[in-house]
Each structure stands twice: as C-alpha cells, then as structure tokens.
Amino acid sequence: MTLGSVTVAPEAITVTGLRKSYGGIQALAGVDLAVLAGTVHAVVGENGAGKSTLMKILAGALQPDGGELRIAGQPVRLGSPADARRLGVGIVYQELSLFPERSILANLFPDDQPTTFGLVDRAAMRRRAAPVLERIGLHVDPDTMVGDLGIGERQLVELSRLLIERPGVLILDEPNSALNARETDRLFAILRELSTDGITIIYVSHRLEEVFAIADVITVMRNGEVVQTGDRAATTMARVVEAMVGTSPAALFPPRRAKAPAGAASLTVSGLSVGDELIDISFDARPGEIIGLAGLEGSGVATLLGVLFGTRRATAGTIAYPDGGGIPTSPTAAARRGISLVPADRRHQGLMLDASVETNIAHVSVGALPSRRPWLDRRAIRTAALRQIAGLQIRTDGARAIVGRLSGGNQQKVVVAKWLEISPTVFLLDDPTRGVDVGAKREIYRLIRELADGGRTVLFRSTELPEIVGLADRIIVLFRGRLAMEATGGRIDDHGLLHAINTGRPLGADPAGPPDVQEVHR
To answer: Alpha-carbon distance 293 to 305, whole Å?
Structure first.
C-alpha cells in the first residue's frame, strides 16, 4: 500500500464510527481513522478536540459508546489497559504514572517482576532494563529513586517502562512535554529506530514544528471528529493550523488598532552598542504599542532584550525608561523598576517546575520588591494567585497545583502572572508562544494585546514570522547587529519580512545599497 511517498504495510489500528460522550458532552462524534503499520502517525488538534479521549480508548483505559476498533485487522473490545498491552498496544501519557518513592528499576517492572525460586530477581531486572536504558540515553543508576530525578528524566523512565514490554503499537500522548531540546532529539532518534524496526507510532503533540519533523502521516481532529488526514509531505503547517481551528491562521490574532498609539515615547533607545553584537541601535516605543523584534539567530535581537532587562552590559549608548531611569544593572533592578521579561525557555528560566502555581506567581513580587515585613503573608500570596488564575483564565486544579503538571500554554500564563504582580510598565517577551498549542497561542495573542491596551509598552521577539506580522503595531528588523528596517504593522507580509531578516533590506530594495534603516509603507 502506498500513501504519498510512503510505502507501508496494512493497517495496524483501524477505528470506524467511534463515539464517546461524557454526560451531555460529546467527546468523539463518529471518528474514522486508519493507522498504517510501521509509520509514525501524528494526531493533532486544539485542546478539547478529542485526541486524548481517542488515545485512551485505543489503550483500553476508556470504553467507547459505539463504533468498532480493529487491531491488525481483527475486531477487538478492550476492557482494560492490560487487554491492550496483551495485544501489543502501549501508551505513554503526558501525566506521569510513576512511583516517586521507588527506584527506577522498581518502576520499570511494576507488575511483572522476574522471580527466581519465588524471590524477585533484581539481576534479571537489570539485564532486561540495561539495553532499553542505554538505547533511550538514560544514564542514571537504576537504583536511584524516581523522586530524585528531574521531570525530563522521569519522562524517559516512563517511556523505558513501556519499551521493555516490546509493544507493536506505541502511543505517545505529548511525550516530550517535559524534555529539553537534547532529550527531544534523542527521543525522535529512538522513534525513528522503532519505526524502522516495524513498530507503529501514534504521536500526539501540539508542537507542529516537531510533528512535521517526525511524522509520516498527520491527522487533524476538531470538535471530536477527524477533519483531515494525509501524508506529511503533501501538506503544510498553515493548512494543518487552518484545519485545527476551522479558519485561516490570520484569524488567530486580535483585531489590529485602527490608529497607532500616539503621545510621547515611554522607552527610548539611543545609539546602543554591545561590541560587535549591537551597533548604534536607536528607536523609541510608546505606551500601548506592541513592537515586534525580528532577526535571524545572531542578529542582535537576543542581545537587545538582554540589555533592556539588565542581563547584558552596553558598551555605548543610552536607554530611557518610563520611570526616567537608564539601563538596569541587573534583572532584580529591572523588576523593581517595572521592567519584566518572559523568557524563551520558560521551563528553565521562567518557572520553578516543582513548585506550586501560587509560589511561582509570588516569586517576583516577594523576591524583588522591597518589603519591611520579616515574614511572608501566605494569605496575601494565595489571594494574589487566585486573582491571577481567574484574570488570566489559567486552567489548573488550584493555587497549590504543581506548575510542571500544567500545559505549556498555562505555564506561560503563570510566567506572565508573576510579572503582572509588580504592575510593570514595560513588558519584554522572548518567543512567548514557543511550545504551546494553537488554542493557547490564540489566548496569548489576546493577552499581549490586553497588556498593550492597558498602557504598557510591549516588545516581543518570535521565531514565527506570522506572529510578528499579525500582532505587532510596528516591526523592527535587526541584521548583523544593526537596525536594518522598520515596518508599520499591517504594511508587510511574511514574505517581505523573511526577505528583510535574511538580507537586511526591504523587498525590492537596491541589493547593492547598504542595509540602512528604512521605513516600509506599503
């Protein structure tokens, strides 16, 4: 059987007319899906699309209200996860199911510990575990307590436990939500090896750039239905996004202002230089204005954000802030002056993943703002957290919920919430929607617009050019450390911006001329 450019075996899993309701809410509305053996089949969709419900049915954790499920062509009824495992179907959930007070080795064999003469054979356990742990790249003493591991390492233990069972179909529901870039690359290498060995992979994720990097086939779900399935090579990310949200990607952005913010500048950058990383940068920003910062890696955008927040030192030039002060000497000094930064790597730089929502929200206000109180006002901390949870619509079980267990979009809202507690006047956002699903992106776009509408000055960088084009009132392009172009929001498209960040010149400009600052009015 051939699908696009992929030649594959017959179906490993087939579902026909699958239905599932919770009370009066229909989670699956007659889903039809065929997963071909030996492929990596991605399933994507917004939160609430039905992805997790479908995966739980395939793994035997839920029973459908109707429809048919076939494994390797044979109709089956899965009454439990054990039934699914016996038929070679295993799943790794986003929510870990490990025992933190037990060792890695004990977690790898929770129900099927090898025995000799009626005693647990730990040597046999080590022999079976060693090649799996080596293959997955988890180089930790197997006697280590799982509770002593980081979240990323725990995720790898969960995956190792499943691989020891040698499943024929491997379902991964947001498997890399807790993994860093190196661990994710290793996971993808493992998945490719498993697929080559004939194992079928069903991969659920909201990170579309990673889906396009790993998947052979992509299925899109929306409102409990499958709305699109096709060869990854035959589609584009824009088409997938449109299928997920039921509209053009441009509709994700809040309406643009009819008129640009007016009045005196609240932030003025003059002749700013940092060695050869930034060279004579000058611009200003007004209250209520959203400025998009665009540029390739090494263009100087990251350096500029660092200087604005006090993590980098300028070698020349000045910055004037709303409080009348100059360049902050440290992030703490910046926070005390109402300058905030939402970092690109929220998991390592923006959050304490093992701490509660309320502790994270209080982190900046308690740690940076001066206070005469020698103790923490726990009631005030709880009240502030509940206020931010309600105001930002953070989906969590409560203020005491552990941040590491929240979705990426809700984690990002917690980062924003902690800065809102100090009433900032300048908001710096570095790739604020990295690693969140499409629905969460839409909420973050709305939130950025609300921050600006509240009179704050917003500067943000994004690795996704449509975000800058769709959200910014004004776009500043840096090229090799220099300010190469300014564009009024709505006057440039993705193609024009891509050309500018790669050449340092507006589209159609004289290629022989210098990449000086040029205002675009098209």
So the answer is: 9
- Residue 509 CB-density burial (10 A; 0-12 exposed, 13-18 middle, 19+ buried): middle
The 10 Å Cβ neighbour count of residue 106 is 19
Q: What is the mean pLDDT of each successive set of 10 residues along the chain, which is 522 residues long?
A: 47 93 84 94 85 92 93 91 90 78 86 72 84 84 87 81 87 73 79 88 85 93 91 88 76 76 83 94 92 89 94 94 91 89 80 85 72 63 85 83 82 86 88 78 87 91 86 92 87 81 73 49 38
Determine how many CB atoms are found less than 10 A away from the CB of residue 25. Answer: 9
What is the pTM for the complete model shown? 0.61
From CA 235, how far away is CA 228, in angstroms rounded? 10
Beta-strand pair 217-222/474-479: unpaired
C-alpha to C-alpha distance for 366 and 422, rounded to whole angstroms? 10
Query: Which H or E element spans position 18?
Result: strand 11-22
Structure token digits, residue 358:
């309320």
Q: Counting beta carbons within 10 angstroms of the beta carbon of residue 329, is it exposed (0 to 12), middle (13 to 18) or buried (19 or more)?
A: exposed
CB-based contacts of 15, cutoff 8 Å, min separation 6: 31, 32, 33, 54, 57, 58, 67, 68, 69, 70
Cα(292)–Cα(294) distance, integer angstroms = 6
Phi-psi region of 437 (alpha: psi -120 to 50; beta: other; left: phi over 0): beta
